[in-house]
Amino acid sequence: MKNSLILVFTLLLIITITTTCIVNSFSVSAFIAPVIMVLAAVKFLLVAFQFMELKKAHSFWKISLIITLGLLVILIIGIK
């Protein structure tokens, strides 16, 4: 249990640092926003499943969260 928490925390730090490097190294483009949104969605799912104990919830809640997040990301990327 403790190893999985450390692993997820490390992944969150790596994704955050990667996002920061992407933002600082590239100029504004249409390619950067979707990449950042996908990384943010991955971070959200990691936090939801690991730290909010959603992995123990009913499968309906898991699927509904993933579908809602996917639709939200697609909607935001589509508007941009």
TrEMBL record:
Q: Which GO terms describe its cellular component?
A: plasma membrane
- Where does the chain cross the membrane? 30-48, 60-79
Q: Where in the cell is it found?
A: Cell membrane
Recorded coiled-coil stretches: none
Reading the lineage from the top rank, the first entry is: Bacteria
Keywords, alphabetical:
Cell membrane, Membrane, Transmembrane, Transmembrane helix
- UniProt protein name: Cytochrome C oxidase subunit IV
In terms of Pfam families, this protein maps to: COX4_pro (PF03626)
Query: To which species is this protein native?
Result: Flavobacterium aquariorum
- Major subcellular location class: membrane
Topology relative to the membrane: Multi-pass membrane protein
Which InterPro entries does the record match to this protein?
Cyt_c_oxidase_su4_prok
